[in-house]
Design brief:
Order of helices and strands: EEEEEHEEHHE
Number of strands: 8
Number of helices: 3
Shape: globular
CATH topology of the largest domain: GMP Synthetase, Chain A, domain 3
Structural class: alpha+beta
Largest sheet: 3 strands, antiparallel
CATH superfamily of the largest domain: K homology (KH) domain
Number of domains: 2
Radius of gyration: 19 Å
CATH class of the largest domain: Alpha Beta
CATH architecture of the largest domain: 2-Layer Sandwich
């Protein structure tokens, strides 16, 4: 493992940051489209600018990926915890909606509605899984000004 020491502005604070390998490459193609390649797997996808910002809207936009990444992270971390509890979350689904703001243009709100399959879980287990989803790495990485509206529906 390699570590580097990072000194903040005016050396007010220091932080240890673990160095890792590059995750992806993003190549600008043309007409507001990019190609993104995941380096470990070689899988790829394209993005487009959204139609309300001069794009074609034929692919996920970069801000769509943030909202979608939130849903994927929530359900994945819940799945990790569920597996450790010998619970299968097959069929669980997160529907995400992104609300854009202007001046400056940014995501103002992400709505994430999580629908869990009928598993017959007790309330304590449901609370544990919801707490895991609500504290996934993407949730912890988003700016505190970004409003999150997260709801769970247990069938």
């Amino acid at each position: 493992m390699s570590y580097t020491l990072y000194r903040g502005i005016n050396c007010i604070f220091t932080k240890i940051i673990k160095l890792t390998t590059m995750t992806a490459t993003v190549t600008y193609e043309q007409n507001l489209r990019t190609t993104c390649v995941h380096l470990q797997s070689g899988s790829s996808f394209e993005t487009d600018a959204p139609t309300d910002n001069k794009g074609k809207g034929e692919r996920f936009s970069p801000t769509d990926l943030i909202a979608t990444g939130l849903g994927a992270c929530m359900i994945t971390t819940m799945g990790i915890k569920a597996e450790s509890m010998e619970i299968a979350l097959d069929g669980a689904k997160v529907e995400v909606t992104k609300v854009m703001l202007s001046d400056p243009r940014r995501i103002g709100k992400i709505i994430a509605h999580v629908t869990m399959p009928a598993l017959g879980l007790d309330n304590k287990t449901k609370e544990i899984l919801e707490r895991v989803g609500n504290s996934c790495p993407v949730v912890k990485s988003l700016h505190p000004d970004l409003e999150l509206d997260i709801a769970y529906n247990w069938l």
